[in-house]
Amino acid sequence: MHITVTEIEKSYATVSAVCGVSFTINTGEIFALLGPNGAGKSSIIRMLVGMTRPDRGTIVVTHQQAHYDHVPRRYLGYLPEDRGLYPDKSVEKNLLYLAQLHGLSKAQAQQEMDHWLAIFELTERRKEDLKQLSKGNQQKVQLIAAVIHKPALVILDEPFSGLDPINQEKVVEFLKTLRAKGMTVILSAHQMAMVEKLADRMLLMAKGQVVLAGTLMDIKQQAQPKPVVVIETQQAITAVQLATLLPDYTVSLQSEHRFSVALPTTAMLSTCLQTLLNEFTVQSVSMQNPDLHQLYLTAMSAHQQEEIA
Ligand SMILES: Nc1ncnc2c1ncn2[C@@H]1O[C@H](COP(=O)(O)OP(=O)(O)OP(=O)(O)O)[C@@H](O)[C@H]1O
After folding, report:
1. What distance in Å separates the CA atoms of residue 212 and residue 218, rounded to the nearest whole number?
2. pLDDT tens across 285-302, in order?
3. Which residue of 16, 62, 141, 253 has the fewest C-beta atoms within 10 A of its own C-beta?
4. ABC transporter domain: from which residue to which, for each copy (predicted)?
């Protein structure tokens, strides 16, 4: 399934939620929608699934040579922001009901359910009412419900929310499995470490506008984060000493002997080191590769400053 979104806009009363956003999603890729609360991610998802329509701009969804202005329900697996299974029904009843609603025969539904319950280690819990499960396990059932009918496109709004780190990793593996099966996946998430492991391409938004877009590599080039060095000293160093010695740098203490420094430019490294060497013995210096979390923070703070200016 291929999606081309061109200059879409959406307003609610006085709020401009999406302001001229364009992007494409290619078949079989994992596409991440990122941005702070209120950025417009859910508004975009609601337009993609046809729950609302753009005020302006176009959405073209292409699947098996046919074109649509939103993703047809029969091709869609959707994990909405406000979940929506039946808490008083068993895991099994919920999943079989939904799968059959999507057109699977009882036998197919059973087969798919068994497959996914085993992957999420929920086979033993299938007879329990959904409400009896922990939040994390309920979330896993919701994820299964979104994919049980093998949709061409899966949209997952906050798939990692409420999950502990081990279960977050399981969801990463789950999403990789979907991609391996040829499904196209759109996810919105706040957990940059997870997104970094997964997303083929991403769209970083703020206040309805695109801030950065592309692969992780593209985003690294666009964000131009400050170079960060990690420095280890022989003697213990405190946050107060660091702030006094390096008042013009953004420093972050990682342990008694280790801290990071965000340099305004790489050329400032020698000045920074000379200042430190007057007081401390430096044991190691290494440049740190910015991760998506740092790129996100850099981009957001640059966007905020542009807005103020
Ligand atoms: N139904 C609505 N009526 C009025 N305003 C809305 C409605 N839905 C969203 N908004 C507003 O539109 C803006 C974008 O909201 P949206 O839910 O799309 O953001 P989001 O990026 O998904 O945020 P979050 O990460 O918190 O889910 C916000 O200012 C929000 O208050």
Report:
1. 9
2. 998 877 888 788 878 877
3. 62
4. 3-232
